[in-house]
User: What shape does this take?
Amino acid sequence: MQAIETLLHNPRRQRIKLIERGPPNPAHYYTIDGSSEGVISTTALLKPTMPPFDAELQIATMMASPAWPENKLYGLTPEEIKREWSTAAPAGTAMHHNFENYHAGQPYNASAPEFVAYAGWLRQNPHIEHVASEYVLGSKAALLGGAIDNLSHDTQTNTFLMFDYKRTTKLRTQGYCECHNPFGLKKAFPHQRTINFAPGHDPDTCRAYGSHPLTEHLPSCNHMTYSLQQHVYGHLLEHPNLYNFPLAGQYLLAITPPTYYLYQAPVADVRNIARELIAERVREVKATLY
Assistant: This one.
């Protein structure tokens, strides 16, 4: 198809590169026209939009919950839980590389539980044909780079889809407030601020919502962060002056250990916010030129 050929041979692919180095000096960064100066990743762009993760608070909240005995981490000390969590990122990276190797025809681990789940999803969706893995894209005006996990062609509808692989114990769609309440627990809130907070709530320090003027009405949760990430990619991909590639859908493929169940989740519609975040970044870059 012409759209696929145009995408795969877009000259920007030669201008925007993802540089990855392993030990002893690991690195992961983007270059545009051979330079990494001022270039940030999409992860870095989105980092200020949500409150930072507080491991101590999260652990204390879990242990205070009536459901703590049913938690898979029950019985571990706080330090043991932190060590358990520290393995999550490397496991997610290994999963990404394994899937990428499979699609590239390179050696891969077919017995990895994440791949077993993914292979099952592929068998259930034979009409979804893989087009590209780890598709690197970006914008020089925004000095911004990113990489899409999976671009695919839906042969039933003749449309294109974006998928993002996530290895996570749970896709959360609500933010949590650490402010005081009668039970001393975090409290989950829906996607809007039309709620009655517990006594002692401090809206300036509350972590239930985003930490940026453009995201302060959004719940602080991984599903929302992943959705913003996908819409940043989607905006760059569909922009007529960049890649001009049409998308019909954007999804998360979430694999949840320890059961390794895979489910396909649509992203939240936050495309306008993603577009504004990119526009804000472009203005910042322009300001540094003068």
Summary: The longest strand covers residues 128-139. Residues 180-201 have pLDDT under 50 and may be disordered. Residues 94 and 114 are 10 Å apart (CA to CA). DSSP finds nine helices and ten strands in the chain.
